[in-house]
Design goal:
61% helix, 2 domains, 0% strand, mainly alpha
């Protein structure tokens, strides 16, 4: 049994695309408009998709449902959900991580490139030897894409 667990620990998981992740997040946001958090938590655990960017809005929507129920007890769950779904449809660009709808390859592919030696970095971080010369020569490829930006460029191109 232990050998089987060890074997499956090192097997690749379900491949995901930005489209798949975005579709799952849209389902989660639609579910949260009903105001119950536990089904969302269960769905995130089952699907393996929990986006920190969208999680902020999921939490906000749960609070919004609670506030709406406190203000007007006569509102039904369906009417609250309908109102929030309308708001979600208008504000989709704010709710979902913009990288998920960005044209081109999904950015997580960069994490699988061989230049980034995870084991070596992990062992240096754990040993406390974080600031070796090697750290400064092995930046990820996207590092130089923004480090030389002026303050005006940062304001224009960042969220």
């Amino acid at each position: 049994m232990q050998k089987e667990i060890h074997f499956y620990t090192y097997q690749p998981g379900i491949p995901r695309t930005a489209t798949d992740i975005l579709a799952e997040l849209k389902i989660q946001v639609k579910m949260v408009c009903r105001g119950v958090a536990q089904p969302i938590i269960d769905r995130q655990a089952d699907s393996g998709v929990k986006d920190a960017y969208t999680q902020y809005w999921i939490n906000q929507l749960i609070e919004c449902v609670c506030d709406m129920k406190k203000r007007d007890c006569s509102l039904s769950t369906d009417s609250i959900a309908e109102e929030l779904l309308t708001w979600v449809a208008v504000n989709e660009a704010r709710i979902y991580n913009p990288f998920l709808s960005h044209p081109g390859p999904y950015w997580h592919f960069l994490l699988t490139l061989h230049w980034w030696d995870i084991t070596d970095n992990h062992s240096r971080l754990c040993s406390g030897n974080r600031h070796t010369n090697r750290d400064f020569t092995h930046y990820p490829p996207w590092h130089s894409s923004h480090t030389s930006w002026s303050d005006a460029q940062k304001k224009t191109y960042t969220l």
